[in-house]
């Protein structure tokens, strides 16, 4: 498969080029790489109607067949990883190797969802009655995905929603619609028409979806600010919502770490995907005893990392995905400069085409600085010194966010004991960002509502239904 210019939506099992188009840019060059359909309200209505029509049969399809379809989709996307990776790099910016990893992950996530089973709980089985609680699909799900991991985060939704017997209308971000549209083309014949519909569009399409009475649920991944709007817009029709939102993950580095060993891992915890990861380390608290050597090791490592066009051999960090996010990260850097904070490395964006920002590390900015308190979602990391464990836990938790976090230390029990005190949906000890399709992932506080992954994530695509049968003998 080669990528081309005729990216189409998938509506009711048919590819549909739409009546209007919008351009998609390569963030490394700012050149147009293709165009995507700009869905109209009518296109959205048609996609929802197709999903609604497909729902009864799909819900009644034996779960084994639904699993088989997801496994086939997973294999199909993995088989095209090479071509898709080039497309994903072109629209997202990440290096080819990471794009390939995301695509393989997307296939793995579909297969992982297919390994889950729907539980039935027997509440009572007595002489008088039998009572069970089972889980039935909700109906039509609207899925809205972001631009940092376009395909993988869409599959976080597609797998469990379809496994549970729902049908779906999926909308990728306007910055990265192309790989998701190609995915639709790849899997079109692996599902009955209308089970999965994919539509793309501009800024108006998301709000049309969240307020549309035709959806039973909205599953959204994106920023906390947009998440609030999604919840508000879903309220009048009481749609179910799952919201996977922003984070400001703290890494706590204990005094007993082997600095040389962990420096590289800590670097990538913050800078993988150019810092554009919901669970990237966004503030790094380093114990006073090792602050200087770790700082030096991080700065030394940073100077070896190649930032550039993700399609070029050897690139380890690509550009920021889009102009708005580029401006936001530069604004945070500007604020740090205005306040007189110390830059250990980076801080000056070169005047070249593309949304490139160099790896930037700040030396111990104040706790109340914007770069510590806000989600940067870019390659700017504040290192912050601490010396008291209770204090660092309090600082890590003093945030409206509660998505992820990590604790690093040679004494694993001690690190674990700190990890247990972090108020986040996921906390890692001596690693970060390890997620699984069979484990619940979600945010505490304003990092989200509900979870994705695992049985908990699957059940969010269902209504619990209790059926109580009085036994003849009791009548
Ligand atoms: P965003 O909120 O700008 O956009 C996300 C999606 O929502 C896009 O498809 C966009 O078109 C759509 N959208 C925008 N406005 C909308 C509205 N009013 N109603 C409905 N839909 C609307 O987020 P982004 O900039 O694409 O992604 C970055 C953010 O996502 C970061 O904050 C990051 O932490 C978060 N994120 C969270 C997770 C997670 O799992 N918790 C994963 C990845 C990214």
What is the gist of this entry?
Helix content is 38%, strand content 23%.
Word description of this protein:
- This protein folds into two domains: 9-245 and 447-466, 3-Layer(aba) Sandwich (Aldehyde Dehydrogenase, Chain A, domain 1), CATH 3.40.605.10; 250-429, 3-Layer(aba) Sandwich (Aldehyde Dehydrogenase, Chain A, domain 2).
- 38% of the residues lie in helices and 23% in strands.
- It has helices spanning 41-60, 63-79, 81-92, 96-114, 150-163, 178-187, 205-211, 224-234, 259-271, 288-302, 323-338, 370-373, 389-397, 412-419, 454-459, and strands at 9-11, 14-16, 21-26, 31-37, 121-125, 129-137, 140-144, 167-171, 196-198, 217-221, 240-244, 249-253, 281-287, 342-345, 360-363, 380-386, 401-402, 405-408, 428-429, 441-442, 444-445, 448-449, 451-452, 462-470.
- The strands form seven sheets. A seven-stranded mixed beta sheet has the order 14-15-16-13-12-18-19, with helices on both faces.
- A hairpin with a 3-residue loop joins strand 5 and strand 6.
- Helix 3 packs across helix 4, helix 4 (96-114) packs parallel to helix 5 and helix 9 crosses helix 10.
- The longest helix is centred in the N-terminal third of the chain and has 20 residues, at 41-60.
- It is globular, with a radius of gyration of 23 Å.
- The mean pLDDT is 97.
